[in-house]
Amino acid sequence: MPEFLPYGRQSVTDEDVAAVTEVLRGDWLTTGPAVARFEADLALHTGGVPAVAVTSGTAALHVAYAAAALVPGDEVVASPMTFVATAATAALHGAKVVFADVEPDTGNLAVEAAAAAVTERTKVVAAVDYAGHPAELDALADVAHHAGALLLEDAAHSVGGSWQGRAVGSLADLTTFSFFPTKNLTTAEGGAVVTASPELLQRAQAFRNHGLVRDKALQRYPDEGGWHQEVHEFGLNYRLPDVLCALGSSQLTRLAEFKKRRAEIHARYNAALADVSGVLTPPSRPGADPVWHLYPLRVLDGRRRALFDHLRGLGIGVQVNYIPAYWHPVFEDLGYRRGLCPNAEAYYEQELSLPLFPSLTDADVDRVVDGVRSFFGI
């Protein structure tokens, strides 16, 4: 049996290891200079918009919703084609999640569906750049702002991409990233919140550090002593340590290389599977400059599970991303029912993620293609 091919894999070099080792030998393992350096390095890829490093992509979403001052009674319009964290972190703030359907081809939040879902209680519209293809961010921003809400871009899949010539991170009021090992760059675990708003930035920075207020000008009792710190609003410890920030800064030096290789693999799959009548290859909209985190093949005629089992049997680690978020029992128990977003459910029933990561060789890609084609008798 050939070596098992996972659907995603990190790319770690000796330079990455050296960057981490340098921090381990220094004075700061956390809350030190590598954090500020990583945030500054990341801003070079977001159109200069400031970043707040946090412990995971899920933490980034939780922090972003806190920055938006989400409270019980507020509503968040969200895409269901995402990992559950996009919705769960809003629910953890007490908000009601209103799922709006997706575009049938990209799997991204549909502008018309989002516009139909907003109400006077909508505080945030949460779009997801599914598979690395940016959502219709300009139009979704118009929908959110017309409703007096903020646009949050869950860009866990799309760091380094752009929409209509503008960098991901510079289009939404709040943007969140994930640096999990399978993502487009990694800090092992980690994430970030990006915003151009000084107020939202300050709230995000405070929430990721317990809500601590150390600035005497902002304290209620500033004369207590030089040691004094206060909490005015509850926060959590979502600090990303220097060790992992150093890895992130090192990885960012190769983000363009990662993006290029992912695009090559994506194009190779597209070309090799274009004549297979039982599948649909993923589209790319005009104005989109994706960073392909996933290759979401669409398998027609109800044969997705059979192809999944066939490829897994060949040692090819395909995956399905994702079940509609409201299908999870935690949302079912809150009253959400299947059938809510027909496009998302149809997309899920067909989606199969083929292996995609920078160190995947052309021979590996051809092996996956051969596996798909053999299933269809080609």
Overall 3D shape = globular
Cα gyration radius (Å): 21 Å
CATH third-level topology of the largest domain: Aspartate Aminotransferase, domain 2
What are the segments in which pLDDT stays under 50 over at least 5 consecutive residues?
A: none
- Topology order in helix (H) and strand (E) letters: HHEHEHEHEHEEEEEHEEHHEEEHHHEH
What profile does the largest beta sheet have? Answer: 7 strands, mixed
Helicity range: 25-40%
Explain what this protein looks like in three dimensions.
- With 378 residues, this protein is an alpha/beta fold.
- It folds into two domains: 239 residues, Aspartate Aminotransferase, domain 2 (3-Layer(aba) Sandwich); 121 residues, Alpha-Beta Complex (Aspartate Aminotransferase, domain 1), CATH 3.90.1150.
- Helix content is 36%, strand content 14%.
- It is built from 13 helices and 15 strands.
- The protein has a seven-stranded mixed β-sheet with strand order 1-9-8-5-4-2-3, with helices on both faces. Strands 7-6-13 form a three-stranded antiparallel β-sheet, with no helix packed on it. A three-stranded antiparallel β-sheet has the order 12-14-15.
- Strand 6 and strand 7 form a beta hairpin.
- Helix 1 packs antiparallel against helix 8.
- The longest helix has 19 residues.
- It is globular, with a radius of gyration of 21 Å.
- The relative contact order is 0.17.
SSE map:
Layout: H1 14-24, H2 33-43, E1 51-54, H3 57-67, E2 75-78, H4 85-92, E3 96-99, H5 111-117, E4 122-128, H6 137-146, E5 150-154, E6 162-163, E7 166-167, E8 174-178, E9 191-194, H7 198-207, E10 212-213, E11 230-231, H8 242-252, H9 255-273, E12 279-280, E13 288-289, E14 295-299, H10 304-313, H11 329-332, H12 342-350, E15 351-354, H13 362-375
Parallel strand pairs: 2-3, 2-4, 4-5, 5-8
Antiparallel strand pairs: 1-9, 6-7, 6-13, 8-9, 10-11, 12-14, 14-15
